[in-house]
Amino acid sequence: MPLLARPALPDLKSNLIATINFRLMPLEVDIDEIVRQVMAELRKSSTVSPAVNGDTNKPSTPTPANTKPQVSQLEISERVVTLATLEHRLTDIRHVVLRRGAVVTPSVRDVLRERGINVSYSSEKNATAAAVTIVLGVAELAEAGSKSVATTFVEALSREGASIERVAATGLASVTSELADHAARGGRATVLVTSHSEAAVCLANRVPGVRAVGGRDVDAVRRGMNEVAANLLAFDPAAAPTAFRRLIHEFRTGWPRRVPAVLDLHFPRV
After folding, report:
1. Residue 129's pLDDT is what?
2. Which tens digits make up the pLDDT trace of 213-254?
3. pLDDT at residue number 264
4. Across-strand partners of 136?
5. Residues 257, 215: contact at Cβ < 8 Å?
6. Distance in angstroms (rounded) separating the CA atoms of residues 184 and 220
7. Sequence-distant (≥ 6) Cβ neighbours of residue 220 within 8 angstroms
8. Model pLDDT, residue 88
9. Which of 12, 43, 73, 205 has its CA 20 to 30 A from that of 109?
10. What per-residue confidence (pLDDT) applies to 122?
11. In angstroms, what CA-CA distances link 67 with 17, 62, 92, 94?
């Protein structure tokens, strides 16, 4: 078997050096690339940091704190204040201002005390003399003539500028109950046109907070209205349509009326 020729030593050395250089060259390139990438990331993070620090050093959010005092006081214009009146309205409230002479239920008084809310009453000088909307109902007129007079009466009030909100014309008990609810809970001026004013007054005054007066004599109704600061009037305008229209204008002006002390003592106060 013939022997293979042994390569010359210089040739082996040169091949080995070439091989080593070939294998090391990619490693050197990779290291340089890694170094470049690391340096690029470091430079990038150094440019981003000041911006981040700048954001954190910006003034924090004092705006919500500064806006709270603007909503810390609640003014309530209703004549009678119940839990329904305050529903969803006491968030961040620290002071409640009521109309002078406002009626406050015991449950409301307890809630205000538990929340540490102060209560005060507005000055009478701030009471407006503006006319308010009348909540008006018609029920059980005795004669066809009375129905015609009532229709003419309501139309005349509208032409003279009275703002009227009508309730459904159902039975006397239902209409009276709805008007009494407006008068007691919402502190609104209410009027009932009916031939049975005495019965309506009796029904309405069963509701706490209602001060109903009525009758067929305009002067008597006016006296009752002024003496008890009535919030519900019941009458049949057939007796004196023009006089009763004037009475309605008196009734809706300068609302709400101050409850006399002799009656106000019987209502819970804050």
Report:
1. 43
2. 999 899 999 999 988 889 999 999 988 999 999 999 888 876
3. 60
4. 166, 191
5. no
6. 23
7. none
8. 77
9. 205
10. 74
11. 80, 9, 11, 14
Beta strand residue intervals within the chain, DSSP E: 73-76, 80-81, 95-98, 103-104, 118-121, 134-138, 164-166, 190-193, 212-214, 232-235
What residues of the chain score a pLDDT lower than 50?
9, 12-13, 16, 22, 26-29, 48-56, 63-70, 125-129, 266-270
Question: Rounded to whole angstroms, how far apart are CA atoms 270 and 260?
Answer: 17
Q: What is the pLDDT of residue 18?
A: 54
How far apart (Å, rounded) are the C-alpha atoms in residues 139 and 254?
27
- Render 33-57 in DSSP notation, one character per residue: HHHHHHHHHHHHHHHHHHHHHHHHT
Q: What are phi and psi of 193, to 5 degrees?
A: -95, 115
How far out from the chain centre does Cα 186 lie? 15
Q: How far is CA 62 from CA 59, 65, 66, 74, in A?
A: 8, 5, 6, 23
d(CA 62, CA 53): 19
CA separation for the pair 162, 157 (Å, rounded): 5
Give long-range contacts, CB 8 A cutoff, 24+ apart: 35-39: none
Whole-number Cα distances in Å, 202 to 173, 178, 211, 228, 259:
10, 14, 10, 15, 19
pLDDT in the model for residue 90: 87
Angle at 136 between CA 130 and CA 139, to 5 degrees: 160
What residues form DSSP beta bridges with 161? none
Tokens 């809970």 sit on residue: 185
- At 145, list the tokens: 């003539």
CA distance 209 to 187: 9
